[in-house]
Write a structure and sequence with these properties.
Largest sheet: 6 strands, mixed
Oligomer: single chain
Number of domains: 2
Radius of gyration: 24 Å
Distance between the termini: 35 Å
Number of strands: 18
Strand content: 15-25%
CATH architecture of the largest domain: 3-Layer(aba) Sandwich
Number of helices: 14
CATH topology of the largest domain: Aminopeptidase
Structural class: alpha+beta
Strand order of the largest sheet: 1-2-6-3-7-17
CATH class of the largest domain: Alpha Beta
Shape: globular
Bound molecules: ligand BES, zinc ion
Amino acid sequence: MTLDSWFTTNRTRCEADLFDLLRIASVSADRAYRTDVNRAAEWVHNALAGLKFETELVETAGNPIIFAKSPPVPGAPTALVYGHYDVQPPDPLDQWISPPFEPTVRDGNVYARGATDDKGQMLTHIKSAQAWIETAGTLPINLTYVIEGEEEVGSESLEPFIAANRERLACDCVVISDSSQFAPGQPAITYGLRGILYLELRLSGFKQDLHSGTFGGGVTNPANALCQMLASLVDANGRIQVPGFYDDVVPLSDQERKAFASLGFNEQEFCQQLGVDGLSGEAGFTNLERRWARPTCDINGIWGGYQGEGPKTVLPAKAGAKFSFRLVPNQDPKKILAAVKQHLEKICPPGIRMELIEYHGGAGVLVPLDSPYMAAASQAITRGFGRKPVMIREGGSIPIVATLREQLGADTLLLGWGLNDDNTHSPNEKFCLEDYHRGIKASAYLWEELAKIMRKSITNGK
Ligand code: BES
Ligand code: ZN
C-alpha cells in the first residue's frame, strides 16, 4: 500500500483514535484529575508501543513523560517530536455547547478540550509514523518522541528530564505542532514565540474586613492599592513602566515589519471573530507586531472584597491578582522578575504587606529561517496542505523550545495545524478534522523530506 492510499483508507480510524484520547480529562492544573492525567499518559505510551517503538513511561515528581524511539535507521537524521497530552481546565462549563470531554463533530470540526491544544496536533506525528510503518515497514528517518503532561502548568518535570537525558535526546532538529496556521487555508511555519513570566500579587492590610464608612479614607484599602499597583505597570500608550523592562528588547527590523504587513491581516475580521468594536495596544505598532513581537502585561485574574449579591459597604482586608508578562526573545524572565519585584516593593503603600509569587517563566525564541530543515518543512507542508506555508511569529509560549536549544543545540520546527479561532484555553475548543488529516500527511512527508536533505548533504560531501 502507498502512503497516500493509507491516508484515504485510515481516515475513520485516525479520527476514532483522536476521539478516544479526547475522552480522557487530562487537566494538569487540578490534582483532582490526576487519574485521568495518568490514563492519558498510558494511552500515548500504548500508541507508540503499538508501533514497536522502544518506549518508556517515565515517572516524575509531577506527571509522567512518554519517551519513545523508532527502530534505528543508520545514516538517517533524527527528529525529536515534542508534544503534550495535558489540557487546560474546561471551565466555564456552562458555556460549552457539547461537553468538553465528549468529542462531538459539528461542521467538520471536532469539539473537545485539547482537540487542537495539543492532543489533535500531537497525534498527527504518531499517526504519520504509523502510516510509514504500515506501508513501508519502516520510517525513512529516526524519530524520538517526548510527550509530556505538564505543558499547561510550566513543564516543571520536563526541564530536569531533558538535562539528565541529553545523549538519549540528541537530534538534528525538533518538531512541534502546538501552534496555528495563519488563516484557514493558509498554512504557516512559526519562526518566533514569545516568552512568559507568570506571577501572583497578594496584598493584605488590616486584621479583618472593616466598615467602609467608619474607616474609609483613613486606612489603605488593599483593593485600591492593588488597582494602583497593577495600573502602574502599563501606561496609557501600552508601554510597560517597570524600570529596565525594555533593556534587552531587540527592535523589530524594517524588513520584518514589511514581512508582517505583507501577510494581509484583516483587523475588521479579527474584531468580528472576537465580538469587539475596536482594538488597542502599544502605540506605534500594528496588531500583528503587538501580538507577535512586542512584550505585554496582562491581568489574568483579580479578586478582593465583596462579590455576593447586592451592595456591601466594606473595606476588604485582602486583595490579589494573577498577572503575566509575555516577553520577546532576548528578554530574560529572571531579570524581568527581579525588576518587577523591585518596582512593586517600591510603590507598595504604607499599611499593606505584599507577597509576590512566581508560577513559571520561560524565554521566547526565534528560529533560523534559512536552515535546510525549514526548507524540508516548507516542502512537506506544501505537499500535505496543497499550499506553500507563510512564515509567521506567534504570541503564545512553549518554553521548552528555548530549553531544547540550550541543552541539545537543536532548533525547532514549529508546524502549527490549528486555527486562531480554535478557542484554545476557552469554551468550545475545536480542531478542523480536515486539518488533522492534512497534518498527518504533512508530517509523513516531513520524515521523507528530512531524510532527503541528509542524503543531499552526504552527496555534496559535507
Ligand atoms: N499551544 C500553546 C502555545 C501557543 C499558543 C503557541 C498560541 C502559539 C500560539 C501552549 O499549549 C500554551 O498554551 N502554552 C502556555 C505556556 C505557559 C503555560 C508556560 C501559554 O502560552 O500560555
Ligand atoms: Zn495551551
